């Protein structure tokens, strides 16, 4: 009799330890732990938000403050591309919580940081350098030949000497 009592106490103690461990783990380990691996899933999302700021809502999110520029742009051959492709995400220029509330009340916001203007030629080349894989009707040029034909020296922002990036047709 005496011996089984000891045994039961030991078993009870072990059960108690397991229960306390499970309860403690439930409280202390964040919900998203283990979602992708041995770390908090949310940590990845937070990091992504810091490193790749959310894009705004395209031309409309710039039009709120740059209405003339946006109007010219909407009539141009470039109308299908997003201002943010050539500049930078809206969020690097204007701080906001979420894009929905920004779009509803753009007047309540002011620009917070200077907007990037990228080196023009590198930018244009990304989309317009001739490549066999591109559709034939997409306007493309072999940059070196194009500049030779036009009789101009190659330089960092040579394309915008002739083409307005916001309305590039000649
Ligand atoms: C809340 C208003 C607001 C919004 C929205 C906004 N801007 Fe601006 N932005 C300004 C103001 C005001 C200036 C002028 C700052 C100055 O005088 O240099 C400016 C300046 C700029 C400049 C620099 C001009 C220069 O000469 O250096 C660029 C480029 C620009 N904005 C692009 C954009 C783009 C692209 C978007 C959309 C993704 C955008 N902005 C959205 C208010 C805004
Ligand atoms: C094809 C790339 C491209 C797109 C798309 C683009 N921009 Fe620009 N943007 C440029 C370049 C390049 C410059 C610098 C021009 C220069 O130096 O002559 C510039 C300059 C600017 C400037 C400052 C100088 C100026 O001329 O007033 C503003 C403001 C601006 N862009 C706003 C916008 C807005 C708003 C949109 C969308 C409606 C937009 N951009 C779309 C390439 C682009
Ligand atoms: C994100 C891709 C992209 C970038 C960057 C870009 N373009 Fe374009 N470009 C386009 C698209 C899309 C069109 C329209 C093509 C069509 O109409 O089929 C276009 C059209 C053009 C045209 C032809 C206009 C016409 O009337 O046929 C010229 C010229 C041009 N872009 C010059 C430039 C220059 C200069 C730059 C750099 C400042 C530039 N593009 C940057 C995508 C881009
Ligand atoms: C000296 C002025 C000048 C410079 C600099 C210049 N272009 Fe052009 N570009 C033109 C003219 C003019 C046309 C229209 C005539 C033609 O198609 O040959 C044109 C046409 C284009 C077209 C349309 C071709 C088509 O098939 O419709 C593209 C794309 C283009 N340029 C891109 C660029 C890029 C990218 C740069 C910078 C590397 C650049 N251009 C520099 C004057 C220039």
Tell me what the structure shows.
The structure is a single chain. The protein folds into 2 domains: 40-117, no CATH class; 118-170, no CATH class. With 170 residues, it is mostly helical. The mean pLDDT is 88. It has 9 helices and no strands. The longest helix has 27 residues, at 2-28. 48% of the residues lie in helices and 0% in strands. The protein is elongated. The chain binds heme C (4 copies). One heme C (HEC) is lined by residues 59, 62, 66, 69-70, 73, 78, 81, 83, 85-87, 117, 120, 123, 160, 165-166. Residues 77-78, 80-81, 85-86, 120, 123-124, 126-128, 138-139, 159-160, 163, 165, 168-169 line the site of one heme C (HEC).
Q: How many alpha or pi helices?
A: 9
* Approximate shape: elongated
Proportion of strand residues: under 5%
The largest sheet is:
none
| First-residue to last-residue Cα separation | 102 Å
**Class from secondary-structure proportions:** mainly alpha
Helix content: 40-55%
Which ranges are low-confidence, i.e. pLDDT below 50, for 5 or more consecutive residues?
none
Q: What number of structural domains do the residues give?
A: 2
What ions, cofactors and ligands are bound? heme C
Q: Count the strands?
A: 0
What pattern of helices and strands is seen along the backbone? Answer: HHHHHHHHH
- Give the radius of gyration: 29 Å
| Rounded mean pLDDT score | 88
């Amino acid at each position: 009799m005496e011996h089984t009592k000891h045994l039961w106490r030991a078993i009870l103690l072990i059960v108690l330890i397991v229960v306390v461990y499970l309860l403690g783990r439930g409280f202390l380990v964040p919900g998203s732990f283990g979602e992708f691996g041995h770390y908090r899933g949310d940590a990845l999302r937070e990091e992504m938000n810091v490193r790749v700021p959310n894009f705004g809502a395209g031309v409309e999110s710039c039009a709120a403050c740059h209405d003339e520029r946006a109007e010219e742009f909407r009539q141009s051959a470039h109308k299908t591309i997003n201002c943010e492709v050539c500049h930078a995400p809206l969020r690097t220029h204007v701080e906001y919580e979420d894009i929905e509330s920004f779009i509803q009340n753009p007047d309540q916001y002011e620009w917070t940081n200077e907007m990037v203007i990228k080196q023009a030629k590198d930018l244009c080349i990304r989309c317009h350098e001739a490549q066999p894989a591109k559709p034939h009707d997409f306007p493309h040029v072999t940059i070196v030949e194009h500049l030779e034909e036009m009789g101009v020296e190659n330089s960092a922002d040579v394309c915008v000497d002739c083409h307005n990036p916001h309305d590039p047709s000649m």
